[in-house]
Each structure stands twice: as C-alpha cells, then as structure tokens.
C-alpha cells in the first residue's frame, strides 16, 4: 500500500540522475524515464500523468488538461520538453495512452505500478522517502528554488496558502536552517 507521509523531493541534480540511472534499468525504461521527466517538469499528480494520451502532449506546446483530483483545467508548459516528446511519441498514434501498461496500448499504467517501480528504485538508492508524490514535490522544490515565486507555485499546485506549499515541497525547515547559519548572539 502507498504511504504518502515522509515522501520527499529529489533535491539535487545528483539525486535526480541517480533516480534516472535506476529507471533506465527497468523493463520499460523509455516509458519510465519519460514519465519521470514529464512529471518533474510539469508538477502533475501521478494520476494525471498516467491518464495522458499521446495527443495530450504531441498536439500542442501548451496543452490543457483537466486534473482528476480538482476537476480544474491546467495548462502545461512543454516547450522545454519538445525534443523528448517527439522522440518518445514518434511511433505512437495520437489516440494511444502516453504511458501504456505492459499489457498493451489499451490501458494506461496504473499509479500503483509506478509506485512499486519507484519503491524498487528507492531500495536501490537506500531511501525510505520515495513515492509517486516525489515527482510532484521535486518539480515544486526546484521550481521554487529557481524562481522564489511561491505565489505561482501555489496556483500551479492549487494550494490555499504559502505555508502549505512550502511544507509540501519540504522547503520550510531548510529555509529556517538557512537563517541560522550566520545567527549568533553573544
């Protein structure tokens, strides 16, 4: 069963590359690597990622999708992934699932299957803080570190407060620690 608590983002490029190293050794490495890359570059929930059709990403640089959890329409910004999208979708039909299960093109991979794959990667990395939400949290963490734009990230994640967003991406404790680096009294 999936555990959401204690799931953390991949905070460094090394952690991301290590994760990719193990994904490249999976049975469906092309699918699994692209799923991970699309996730860490869009911040979509895994349930939304696995529900995508080829047409959702191949037909537009800024496609609109409807999020399963919120029912809200979300614009994806895929300009930086165009090369990977073209490469991954070149032999697929527009009506195909973007991430088909191993049983074939007629059904998408299940979130629980992705979770099990990520648990294998986590075991190889000797980590206990990896889950499907790691992808979304990794996006959020790096987006915030790069832009410092918590308001836009809140909007992307549909969160109601900055505190929720910072806690979600694991930034709160890190920021507090930073403030104490040069703080000393007496």
From TrEMBL:
Residue ranges annotated for the Tyr recombinase domain, each copy included: 5-181
Record-level GO BP terms: DNA integration; DNA recombination
Superkingdom assignment: Bacteria
InterPro entries listed in its UniProt record: DNA_brk_join_enz (IPR011010), Integrase-like_cat_sf (IPR013762), Integrase_catalytic (IPR002104), Tyrosine_recombinase_XerCD (IPR050090)
Keywords: DNA recombination
PANTHER family cross-referenced by the UniProt entry: INTEGRASE_RECOMBINASE YOEC-RELATED, PHAGE INTEGRASE-RELATED
Protein name (record): Integrase
């Amino acid at each position: 069963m999936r555990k959401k608590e204690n799931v953390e983002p991949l905070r460094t490029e090394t952690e991301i590359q290590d994760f990719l190293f193990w994904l490249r050794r999976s049975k469906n490495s092309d699918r699994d690597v692209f799923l991970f890359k699309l996730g860490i570059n869009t911040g979509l929930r895994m349930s939304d990622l696995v529900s995508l059709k080829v047409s959702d990403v191949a037909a537009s640089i800024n496609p609109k999708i409807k999020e399963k959890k919120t029912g809200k329409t979300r614009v994806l910004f895929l300009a930086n992934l165009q090369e990977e999208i073209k490469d991954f979708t070149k032999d697929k039909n527009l009506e195909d699932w973007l991430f088909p299960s191993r049983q074939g093109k007629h059904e998408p991979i299940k979130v629980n299957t992705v979770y099990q794959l990520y648990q294998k990667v986590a075991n190889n990395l000797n980590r206990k803080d990896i889950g499907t939400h790691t992808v979304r949290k990794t996006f959020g963490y790096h987006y915030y570190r790069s832009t410092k734009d918590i308001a836009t990230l809140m909007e992307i994640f549909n969160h109601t407060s900055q505190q929720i967003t910072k806690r979600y991406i694991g930034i709160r404790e890190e920021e507090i620690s930073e403030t104490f680096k040069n703080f000393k009294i007496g």
